[in-house]
Amino acid sequence: MTDFLTGLQMFSVRDELSADFEGTVKAVAGMGYDGVEFAGLYGRSPAEAKAVCDRYGLKIASIHSSLEELSADPEGVVKSIAESGADNVVITYLPEDFRAGHRRFGEVIEGAKGIGGICARYGMNLLYHNHDFDFEKVDGEYGLDILYREVPESFLKTELDTCWIDYVGVDPSEYIRKYAGRAPVIHLKDYVMPGKKSEKAGQNTGVDGVEFDKVKGFEFRPVGYGVQDVERIIEASRFAGTKWLVVEQDSPGLGRTAFECAEMSIKYLKKLIQR
Question: Which CATH number goes with the domain that contains 175?
Fold first, then answer.
């Protein structure tokens, strides 16, 4: 047994999901994931998505929603997502004008307080999913840290994306520890790029003759097949009290399909968390 639940961000298999929603959910369950996270429901309501996931024994960990959607009808959107049984509502992205140091950032701060309060009434957390731009500094401080300083933890928690943290040169393990108690969901996302290497990472990248030190450009990879030190990230997540480890791979790599990549990720991940 493990103290984590494992999920797949279904954006990783979005083409498959769009073509065959139920068949894709069934396939993900068959890989051994405990649950899923959605970023788009392809014409289904959260309640309808829950019914499909229930059929195959998957829990919905989170549902992503845009800042625009949540701001336009916070009560309605949160109430609808609650019908999925999800633990979390996630703000997917901040348009440039809404980021720290920009004109409308104050709206994000106040909006998150209000939306987070509504989420709490429905028994859910409001999270924010970071990108690389969240590590641009404003007066010497990362924009992401400003957001979490300005919005109390009771209203907004983290969904730390380990790829974008590592990509900008910040240690994802240390960042997870920094937000211990505020990190219910961690996005495990691996990648390779020229000039980027970790002593403990890349141990699986010899698959099909692909040599880690000869990569030509940036490429997303299955978890454990890139530069990330996944073992340290898991240790930090355990320290932080994380509930969900969610695999996300924006596009397939290693010449494999999206399904094959998702299965490679969960197989590697389970080896680590079941030790």
Answer: 3.20.20.150
Number of folded domains in the chain? 1
- Residue 202 within a domain: no
Sort strands 125-129 and 190-192 into parallel, antiparallel or unpaired: unpaired
Tokens 């094959």, residue located: 260
Quick check: is 143 in a domain? yes
Q: What is the pLDDT of residues 195-207, one digit of tens each?
A: 777 666 666 665 5
Whole-model pTM: value is 0.94
Residue 258 falls inside a structural domain: yes
Burial group, residue 196, by CB count within 10 angstroms (0-12, 13-18, 19+): middle
Is 259 within a domain? yes
Sign of the torsion angle spanned by Cα atoms 41, 259, 36, 248: negative
Beta strands in the chain (DSSP E): 5-9, 35-38, 59-65, 88-91, 125-129, 137-138, 141-142, 157-161, 185-188, 190-192, 219-221, 244-247
Crossing angle of helices 46-55 and 21-31, in 10° steps, is 50
* Greater model confidence, 274 or 54: 54
